[in-house]
Amino acid sequence: MLTRRAARTINPDLTELAAAEFIERYGRAGLGILQERADLAEELGHKFAAQTWRSMADAAARLLRTEAARAAQSPPQTVPAVRNIPARH
Least CB-packed of 1, 19, 23, 53 within 10 Å? Predict the structure, then answer.
């Protein structure tokens, strides 16, 4: 997963780091959660909080896109074959 490692490569600010932590914890579902929190803050009249949640959601979306692009460019990982070794009695 991309998370903090990829966030470090783009010289992130606190918003990107927080978004990376959020995506690391919740996966792709984290993006929807961030957007819902922004909407709720807006509905409650907390404009600054809504702006902060939206900034985090935007940063999370960028990180997820970067992760998807890297995954598409990387060769598939192969898992070494496991041999059945007879048990010794």
Answer: 1
